[in-house]
Design goal:
It comes from Algoriphagus zhangzhouensis. This protein has about 100 residues and is α+β, with helices and mostly antiparallel strands. The protein has six helices and three strands; from the N terminus they run ααααββααβ. The protein has a three-stranded mixed beta sheet with strand order 1-2-3.
């Protein structure tokens, strides 16, 4: 692929827009959002649950959370719909379809 200066945009774009466009062009938006969700897990659920979370990963639009505490696991299961709604509002509808506690 060769560089063609005539293909460049003339106006300057904010960095955030440029990064979003780059992710879109390379079809990495979904993976970036998944990584952002995993990174922001402690922010979403709070310190108590985050401190008892051993691992978080996403597979086939399911969020898997491994917890070290039985009562916290039960609490997550009871509030699953609230957590999914919070994820939908922050990261967009349909990114995560289910939450599985391990």
């Amino acid at each position: 692929m060769t560089y063609n200066p005539n293909n460049r945009k003339k106006e300057a774009a904010p960095l955030e827009d440029a990064v979003k466009e780059l992710l879109k062009v390379y079809r990495l938006e979904g993976k970036f959002q998944e990584k952002s969700l995993i990174h922001d897990w402690s922010e979403l659920v709070g310190k108590t649950i985050a401190s008892r979370t051993e691992s978080v990963f996403i597979r086939d639009k399911k969020l898997f959370v491994k917890l070290s505490s039985g009562p916290i696991k039960r609490e997550i299961q009871m509030n699953k719909s609230k957590i999914l709604a919070l994820i939908d509002s922050r990261f967009g509808e349909g990114m995560i379809e289910d939450l599985v506690c391990l």
